[in-house]
Amino acid sequence: MIPRYQKIIFIVLLVVSLAMAAVLWQLRERAHQRLLAGENSAPTQAPQVAPDQQATLLVANDADGSLLAQDRSLPLPTDPGARARAVLGRLLDLYAAPDAAHPVPGGAAGVAQVFLLPAKGQKGAQDSDAQLAVVNLTGAFAASHPAGLETETLTVLSICGTLRANLPRVAQVRFLVDGQQRATLAGHADLTRTYLTADAVPTEGTSQGNNP
Fold it and tell me: How many domains does the chain have?
């Protein structure tokens, strides 16, 4: 015959087990409902990606100091400022490639922002719709840029020429580094002046680049 205290222990354990099972079932149901709610709130369509378009990059070559226009296909946003940043990002990606003719580390991350402002009444802005592009480079890009008047000038001119080729209204370019004015890029090229995009012209004709 089973002692009375063992019966009581058995009943208590049974009640506790049933209570725990009920709690676990409720927690499972709540988790399931949260999962369903998350699925219902998720977007049903993938975010739109900017379509590929033809862009012209003015690519520098250290061997002969030239600026060669190259056509590239890349996704370009409709917003002019974002578009400018996209083409400059691809230009700097070319310079960061292992076989670059104008090697500069950093790639697209070297351009933080590009702001487009009216350039009315300023030198080189005869067109009433002319724009001034303010290119904000990162401090890391400037710090890692190879020093030398020619190599720094090629970088600056290739940026100006690339902007002009893809945004014809851009007549002038100013440079900032981490949002602040900086005397030079890496000790030589003057970043306190306003550059005219008309001064940055390709040395040779346009060529087809190899898209990555």
Answer: 2
| Joined tokens for residue 193 | 């002046």
C-alpha gyration radius of the chain? 30
Nearest to 166 by CA among 124, 107, 206, 211: 206
The alpha-helical segments, DSSP class H, found in the chain are: 4-41, 80-96, 139-144, 149-166
Q: Does residue 160 sit in the same domain as residue 77?
A: yes
> Distance (Å, rounded) from C-alpha 140 to C-alpha 129?
33
Q: What is the pLDDT of residues 72-108, one digit of tens each?
A: 999 999 999 999 999 999 999 999 999 999 999 999 9
Domain co-membership, 79 together with 142: yes
| pTM (predicted TM-score) | 0.73
Instruction: State whether 82 and 7 are in the same domain.
Output: no
Residue 149 belongs to some domain of the structure: yes
Strand order in the sheet with 52-61: 52-61, 66-75, 207-208
Are residues 63 and 105 part of one domain?
yes
Rounded to whole angstroms, the Cα distance separating 186 from 149 reads 9
